[in-house]
């Protein structure tokens, strides 16, 4: 019986558990990004409305706030699913190391409740509070959203660089939850994720209004709806490039196997070129455009620096090269494309104080949100798949962390159905909100309800 269970764990059920976790995390993280970035953008719009007296900013803030409420509710559902999955699918992780990484999850729960409380106040007290108190009621939402992302990502960072405990005779002792939460990977990984969230939210929100401008050019409401979130995302994008370089240097120093997989380096060498594109075939990167000395220079600021290849690692401990290599290429390529899109707006604004006149700018902006999500998912693929076959890097293998009970594949099918239903329901509700009256009827706000939005 033991042999049978082990065969199941290392076969279809292990794959099903990994796919279920990938689906849940990949779905939830997109919603979470809007929870991180959208409150700040909405508060800026409300502040601009009060500062300038332009009713369109207030309309945007109210409409975005309603969408924010929907996404928060959906994110609460997907986050709850994830919390159950951590225990059900990976008891080898949570049962042994839960005492080490439990602190950030507890603190994330506190941030979640703060966000929920003040989101309720913000949504339902719009017509009951004066402008300044209402605006201030949104500040805790913004802070709690960023804090939630920080705490959760620290737990993932710990899985990359486990600290804060000792292991003696198979037992976990000398637990220091604070050292675990503030592990060496925490600074670069949390900043990288939070900036990515603002990019996803900013470009995603701008994309909706870009579609509207393609249908109705010159509409000031949608023009402002594009400019505000796009500007936030465009400012963040080049900063993200710098932070991404910081993260890559950390990987080069602390996870050389992951770096080798990212760049398809199979043999340890000095002065290693940077591979653009290419496919790993039979232990060799083929069809790639190579930039001489590029990888050594970028990874260690030295064109002759040594890059450790996959030949230093046993085959059983190597991650899948093509998956990680192409995920990394997609993340970097899309990231630079979004930086270029922001530069396009900056040039047009400097010349005419207006959006670029080419319809191709609006078309590019319309898909920028999807592109940002693609880069986000690709980045997490590099982070998570690049750590394989370890759940806790160098300490706990994924095959040892998974639930040994058979039949996990059925859970994956069930959860997939749930997420399909969640996706359909979320898209349906958001589309209804987009087509509805911007704000509920309120007699004291005739200026807002009287403005026609198309």
Can you describe this structure?
With 454 residues, the protein is mainly alpha-helical. It has 16 helices and 10 strands. A two-stranded antiparallel sheet has the order 1-2. α3 runs antiparallel to α15 (408-435). The chain is globular. It starts with a helix and ends in a 5-residue tail after the last helix.
Q: Number of DSSP helices?
A: 16
SS-based structural class? mainly alpha
Shape: globular
What proportion of the residues form beta strands (DSSP E)? Answer: 5-15%
Low-confidence stretches: 1-8, 440-445
Radius of gyration: 24 Å
Key words describing this protein structure:
454 residues; mainly alpha; two-stranded antiparallel ribbon; two-stranded antiparallel sheet; 16 helices; 10 strands; disordered N terminus
Compact overview of the structure:
This protein is mostly helical.
Record the SSE blueprint.
Elements: H1 2-9, H2 12-52, H3 55-89, H4 91-124, H5 131-137, H6 139-160, E1 166-168, E2 171-173, H7 177-181, H8 186-215, H9 220-254, H10 256-263, E3 269-270, E4 274-276, E5 279-281, E6 284-286, E7 289-291, H11 294-300, E8 306-307, H12 321-352, H13 359-385, E9 390-392, E10 396-397, H14 398-401, H15 408-435, H16 446-449
Antiparallel strand pairs: 1-2, 3-8, 4-7, 5-6, 9-10
Helix pairs in contact: 2-3, 2-6, 2-8, 2-15, 3-4, 3-9, 3-15, 4-6, 6-8, 8-9, 8-13, 9-10, 9-12, 10-12, 12-13
């Amino acid at each position: 019986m033991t042999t049978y269970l082990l065969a199941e764990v290392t076969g279809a059920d292990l794959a099903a558990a990994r796919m279920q976790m990938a689906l849940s995390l990949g779905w939830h993280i997109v919603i979470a990004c809007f929870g991180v970035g959208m409150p700040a953008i909405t508060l800026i719009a409300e502040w601009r409305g009060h500062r300038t007296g332009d009713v369109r900013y207030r309309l945007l803030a109210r409409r975005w706030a309603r969408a924010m409420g929907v996404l928060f509710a959906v994110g609460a559902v997907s986050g709850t699913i994830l919390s159950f999955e951590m225990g059900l699918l990976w008891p080898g992780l949570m049962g042994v190391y839960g005492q080490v990484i439990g602190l950030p999850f507890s603190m994330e729960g506190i941030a979640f409740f703060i966000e929920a409380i003040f989101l309720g106040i913000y949504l339902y007290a719009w017509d009951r509070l004066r402008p300044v108190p209402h605006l201030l009621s949104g500040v805790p939402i913004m802070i709690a959203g960023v804090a939630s992302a920080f705490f959760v990502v620290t737990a993932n960072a710990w899985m990359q660089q486990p600290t804060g405990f000792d292991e003696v005779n198979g037992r976990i002792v000398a637990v220091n939850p604070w050292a675990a939460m503030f592990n060496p990977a925490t600074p670069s990984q949390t900043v990288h994720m939070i900036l990515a969230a603002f990019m996803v939210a900013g470009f995603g929100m701008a994309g909706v209004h870009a579609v509207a401008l393609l249908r109705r050019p010159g509409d000031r409401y949608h023009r402002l709806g594009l400019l505000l979130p796009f500007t936030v995302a465009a400012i963040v994008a080049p900063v993200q490039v710098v932070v991404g370089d910081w993260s890559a240097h950390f990987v080069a120093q602390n996870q050389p196997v992951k770096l080798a997989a990212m760049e398809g380096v199979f043999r340890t060498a000095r002065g290693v070129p940077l591979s653009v594109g290419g496919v790993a075939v039979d232990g060799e990167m083929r069809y790639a455009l190579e930039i001489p000395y590029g990888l050594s220079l970028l990874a260690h600021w030295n064109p002759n620096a040594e890059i450790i290849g996959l030949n230093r690692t046993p085959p059983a401990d190597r991650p899948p090269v093509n998956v990680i290599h192409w995920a990394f290429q997609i993340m970097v390529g899309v990231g630079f494309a979004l930086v270029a899109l922001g530069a396009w707006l900056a040039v047009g604004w400097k010349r005419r104080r207006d959006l670029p006149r080419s319809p191709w700018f609006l078309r590019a902006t319309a898909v920028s949100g999807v592109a940002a999500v693609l880069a986000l998912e690709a980045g997490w693929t590099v982070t998570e798949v690049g750590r394989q076959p370890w759940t806790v890097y160098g300490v706990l293998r994924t095959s040892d962390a998974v639930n040994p009970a058979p039949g996990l594949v059925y859970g994956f099918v069930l959860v997939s159905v749930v997420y399909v239903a969640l996706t359909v329901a979320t898209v349906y509700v958001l589309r209804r909100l987009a087509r509805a009256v911007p704000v509920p009827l309120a007699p004291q706000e005739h200026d807002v309800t009287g403005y026609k939005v198309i």
